């Protein structure tokens, strides 16, 4: 995963309304508010996950292998306190990165230790100060090395192995049965696998590979894999990916760009297996956006996505949250809303 080498901040997005009165009519003004919360200083702050049915959020810091447990206000869900815990054998080499809540084991979460080449299933604890308890530990088998992000899809735990192995010089995607980790598969990938998601209609697995700017499709029934290269004319550096249902059904992914900037492009793969690309239209902010992450922003008003633009690869791209809506048949972007990041 790409990262910024700055002090760690988490940013909360809140919706609010205010009303202004005119002589002839009144209208409600909808506003958004960004709040930054100072976290422990770290070079690499990475992943977030809400622990389901609790008022806790977890955040990983890779550079010192710290798991930050953040307590949220029960009513407002604003962060009010945190406690940090060292995970792994060594603060400088264990490299805690991925975090993903388990549905097979409710209340537990998966963690990845890239430096230790290990996946952990942990109980994060019922109170803020309670230390996480390791319930299961999975050593990545040879020739795999360096699990980056971790995901639970059905009864399988998945991880993109971001470090090329000494034995083969190759990269891999790892999956194992959550109940029996000796039942596993290792799929050869390009440089380097990051996010993993399941296309809901076909059940096929898709993986972004950032450095080689390609998406791998995995048929878990046959074991076959296919590489889907991002056309350079469209963009490069495939990173973020999510699975969506309903009107947005399929997998959605982002393109982060390169040293010259982004292209404001994100993509979709549906049941047909074809890549479809969408481009932001707003000059500079949109057309140069380096899109790193993506999330479902749909409401009762219709389908929508959150996109995170980053200046990490190029100062020609802005740091911003972007919300997009679509036309009726979801073939093009309809509206774009931009929220500049504070830091």
TrEMBL record:
Q: Where is the signal peptide?
A: 1-22
User: Which UniProt key words apply to this protein?
Assistant: Signal
From what superkingdom does this record's organism come?
Eukaryota
- Its protein name is Uncharacterized protein
Q: Which organism is it from?
A: Penicillium frequentans
């Amino acid at each position: 995963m790409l990262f910024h080498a700055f002090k760690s901040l988490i940013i909360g997005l809140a919706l609010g309304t205010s009303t202004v009165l005119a002589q002839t009519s009144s209208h409600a003004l909808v506003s958004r508010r960004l709040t930054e919360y100072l976290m422990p200083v770290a070079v690499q702050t990475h992943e977030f996950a809400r622990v389901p049915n609790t008022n806790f959020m977890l955040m990983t810091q890779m550079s010192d292998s710290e798991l930050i447990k953040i307590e949220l206000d029960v009513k407002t869900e604003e962060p009010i306190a945190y406690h940090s815990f060292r995970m792994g054998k060594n603060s400088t080499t264990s490299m805690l990165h991925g975090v993903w809540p388990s549905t097979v084991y409710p209340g537990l979460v998966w963690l990845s230790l890239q430096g230790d080449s290990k996946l952990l299933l942990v109980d994060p604890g019922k109170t803020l100060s309670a230390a996480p308890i390791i319930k299961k530990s999975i050593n990545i088998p040879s020739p795999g090395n360096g699990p980056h992000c971790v995901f639970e899809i059905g009864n399988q735990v998945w991880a993109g192995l971001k470090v090329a192995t000494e034995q083969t010089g190759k990269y891999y995607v790892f999956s194992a049965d959550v109940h029996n980790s000796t039942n596993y598969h290792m799929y050869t990938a390009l440089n380097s696998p990051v996010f993993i998601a399941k296309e809901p209609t076909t059940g096929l697995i898709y993986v972004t590979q950032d450095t080689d700017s390609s998406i791998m499709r995995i048929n878990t029934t046959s074991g076959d894999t296919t590489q889907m290269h991002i056309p350079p004319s469209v963009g490069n550096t495939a990173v973020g990916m999510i699975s969506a249902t309903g009107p947005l059904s399929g997998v959605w992914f982002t393109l982060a760009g390169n040293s010259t900037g982004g292209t404001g492009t994100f993509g979709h793969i549906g049941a047909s297996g074809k890549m479809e690309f969408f481009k932001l239209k707003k000059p500079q902010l949109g057309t140069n956006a380096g899109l790193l992450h993506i999330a479902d922003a749909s409401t009762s008003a219709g389908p929508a996505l959150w996109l995170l633009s980053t200046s990490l690869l190029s100062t020609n791209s802005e740091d911003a949250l972007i919300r997009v809506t679509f036309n009726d048949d979801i073939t093009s972007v309809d509206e774009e809303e931009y929220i500049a990041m504070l830091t």
